[in-house]
Write a structure and sequence with these properties.
Oligomer: single chain
Structural class: alpha+beta
Order of helices and strands: HHEEEEHEEEEEEHH
Number of helices: 5
Length: about 240
């Protein structure tokens, strides 16, 4: 499907003729439908974890860099909030660490054996610096919920009539019918209910990872030794 095909099915349900064009149409009603579709998609991208918007990312260590610019389409980390290093793949890096914890570590006379991390501003901070050639991988959700017709380019907006939504277009279509009637002051409670039910069913089939605390567990810096403790028993 495409934004054009979505409008061609949604607008007749609102008593309007099916358009021959969508994004490029000079018709004000069609332009309004495109704008509403954009707004609905933007809202849905914020409300739920859609599998099609889950992207794999990585940063590459050089032995010195600790601040890595987040991808331009960054929305948030996947709910699990796990970063894995190519040096030690058995357990994730410790984080997200709080500002106070990181400040305490930086002020310490010793550095942790394995890096810790946090997201600050538009950067991912990993401290101490990753080793040269070390790769850290993670998954995040993208703000680019629109694709071009070939699927080769992701983008945040509809640019061409052939662009399509990577969020279920049936939900967007039902949202358009509801939004249009609401904007005209028409009775739309039944259409709103159909939209919300379709959204609940569709979103329920998407990513629903376990609930994860947004705060890292307490890091006992004072009683924490960053090295290896070896016990030698009596001879």
């Amino acid at each position: 499907m495409s934004i054009l095909s979505v409008l061609q099915t949604a607008m007749p349900l609102c008593g309007l003729p099916a358009p021959a064009q969508a994004v490029s149409s000079p018709d004000p009603n069609t332009a309004k439908f495109v704008a509403m579709a954009q707004d609905i998609g933007d809202e849905l991208a914020e409300r739920y974890f859609w599998r099609n918007l889950n992207i794999a990312g990585q940063v590459n260590g050089d032995g010195a860099t600790t601040l890595f610019t987040l991808p331009a389409d960054w929305a948030q980390l996947s709910p699990g909030q796990r970063l894995f290093s190519s040096v030690n793949t058995l357990s994730p890096l410790y984080g997200p660490i709080t500002n106070e914890q990181l400040a305490s570590l930086k002020a310490s006379l010793v550095a942790p054996v394995r890096p810790v991390w946090r997201v600050i501003g538009g950067t991912l901070e990993i401290w101490p610096a990753l080793g040269a050639g070390e790769i850290v991988t993670f998954n995040y959700y993208s703000t680019n919920w629109v694709s071009n017709s070939t699927g080769a380019q992701r983008q945040p907006n509809f640019l061409l009539d052939s662009d399509f939504s990577m969020i279920d277009e049936k939900v967007i279509r039902r949202g358009l019918v509801y939004r249009w009637k609401e904007s005209k002051g028409l009775e739309c409670s039944a259409d709103q209910a159909r939209y919300e039910k379709a959204l609940d069913r569709t979103a329920g089939r998407e990513d629903s990872e376990r609930i994860t605390s947004t705060a890292a567990p307490v890091l006992d810096v004072d009683g924490w030794w960053p090295g290896t403790i070896t016990f030698v028993g009596p001879v």
